[in-house]
Amino acid sequence: MEPVNRPKITIPKSVIEKSIDIMSLALLLISIVYVLMVWSSLPSEIPIHFNIKGEVDRWGGKEGIWFLPAIGVFIWLSLTILEKYPHKYNYLNLTLQNAKKQYLNARLLVNVLKGECVFVFVFFTWQSVNIANGNNIGIGIWELPISYLLYLLLFFFLLFAQLN
Fold it and tell me: What is the four-CA torsion angle of 119, 9, 15, 145, rounded to 10 degrees?
């Protein structure tokens, strides 16, 4: 079905989608409040980049800590807007009969992806503050693979849901 002919269906958000929205927004707000609370105790230099092993490979001014929550807010806002236009996404075998189901699955994918991205940026904010204060609490080399695994699991779960 061509994008021009796709039906524009108004589908209310599910309880899961609303819950993810609330939790991810709450996490963002908590991370911003957390940075405000620890700001005065942060050293002048904080970790701003990590290598594949989870080790700090670049340090910068403490103002850089705001970059992570800012990215989280940008992702949350962007994906929240994107969720409102499921009829604009690309689909395989979209028909009038399956449009609602495909829109729901696609919107859920974007919603869960939004929650995962926010969680990752909040976690990295928290970790950067801890490392800056001398408390290395991270999970080291496993952080990146676990993040990727979560995204892959989401993709395959929703792909499987789409096929059924």
Answer: -30
